[in-house]
Every structure is written in structure tokens, then in C-alpha cells.
Design brief:
Helix content: 10-25%
Strand order of the largest sheet: 4-7-9-10-11-12
Structural class: alpha+beta
Shape: globular
Number of helices: 5
Largest sheet: 6 strands, mixed
Distance between the termini: 27 Å
């Protein structure tokens, strides 16, 4: 995780800070962490993901959110901003502000050099505590590569990966198939 912005604060103080500023921060165990800006590749991949998923989920009871949708892992106290969030069925929010989602179905992180180990490790450990979460994707920005973790009926996570632009990646949590090449459209590798 990144260096803390403030040494200690409550969840209520954190939410008040987030709602009063354009900057985004993560929160865990009383500490607020600044989130850095993203590269062009990162932004293009995230935009392509939102476009592709939103288009395929049109007319279905699933919603796709960009990186501005905060997610709370209630059991661990983490507040974070995944790059892409999909919720199927009724979205449950932390409060009337409707800006902190509690029940994501699919979470996607576009890997950055500064956050890759966190996204793979501690962050995924937090995400696995979300009962609603069915699938987690990690998408590389320096090469064509996607890692897919799907929660099995017994609670175990099954890993698959793809690195061919022609690959069709089936996302069982939301019942769509994504052409891997579409995620890298206009991305200069």
C-alpha cells in the first residue's frame, strides 16, 4: 500500500474527506492512503473494459462502474476504488450517499508497477472476504495478459490466464465473453 496521508482518522472522517475533494484515497485501519494518477495505457484499458462490459450487459440486471465507484469490504474495513466494478442484481450501498458499494460481483484491476504486488496480494485477500464477489481480473498494461480468478462452489478460487489477442475470455460471474484484443484496443505496447 502507499504511504499514509493522515496518520489516523475514523471511517466517518475519511468519508467526509472523500466527499469533499476530487482526489481519491483508500482507507484501512484508520489510515488514509493517496491514490496516484494512472498512465495512458492504464486509462485506455480501463475505458475499454467499461465500454465492452457495459455494451454486453445492456438490458440485463447488471451495472458497470468505473474507477470512481468506491467499494467497502466491511469485514476488513477497507475502502478502495477498483478500476472496474460490476454488480448484478440490486446494488447495496453503505449509506444514502450511494457512493460506496458493498456487493460487487466482479472486480477488475489494471496492474501498475507501483500497485501490482498489492493488487495480487493484500488487496485480493481483502476482496475475497466479500461474499458477493464471484470473479477477480488482473489485466496487465505492459503486455497482452489477463489473469482471471473465479470463485468455485466450495469457496476455492480457480486461476486461468490468457495472453493471445485472439482469445475469448468467458466471464462466468456476469455471463459474458470478452475478446481479449478489445481490452487492448488503441493501447500502444
Amino acid at each position: 500500500m502507499r504511504p499514509a496521508v493522515h496518520s489516523r482518522c475514523t471511517e466517518e472522517e475519511y468519508l467526509a474527506l472523500e466527499r469533499a475533494t476530487e482526489a481519491r484515497h483508500e482507507f484501512l485501519a484508520g489510515e488514509v492512503f493517496a491514490m496516484g494518477g494512472a498512465s495512458e495505457r492504464h486509462n485506455l484499458i480501463a475505458t475499454n473494459l467499461v465500454r465492452e462490459l457495459s455494451q454486453q450487459l445492456k438490458g440485463r440486471p447488471c451495472k458497470t462502474y468505473s474507477a470512481d465507484m468506491r467499494v467497502r469490504v466491511a469485514s476488513s474495513g477497507l475502502y478502495t476504488y477498483p478500476d472496474v466494478v460490476v454488480v448484478c442484481g440490486e446494488a447495496h450501498f453503505d449509506d444514502a450517499g450511494r457512493d460506496t458499494l458493498l456487493n460487487p460481483t466482479l472486480l477488475i484491476e489494471v496492474l501498475s508497477p507501483s500497485t501490482e504486488s498489492y493488487d495480487r496480494g493484500d488487496k485480493f485477500e481483502h476482496y475475497r472476504k466479500l461474499d458477493s464477489l464471484r470473479e477477480y481480473l488482473l489485466v496487465a498494461q505492459d503486455r497482452v495478459h489477463l489473469e482471471q480468478f473465479v470463485r468455485q462452489a466450495d469457496g476455492q478460487w480457480l486461476l486461468s490466464d490468457a495472453d493471445d489477442r485472439a482469445a475469448l475470455v468467458r466471464l462466468p460471474s456476469i455471463e459474458v465473453t470478452v475478446p481479449l484484443g478489445e481490452l487492448y484496443d488503441k493501447v500502444d505496447l
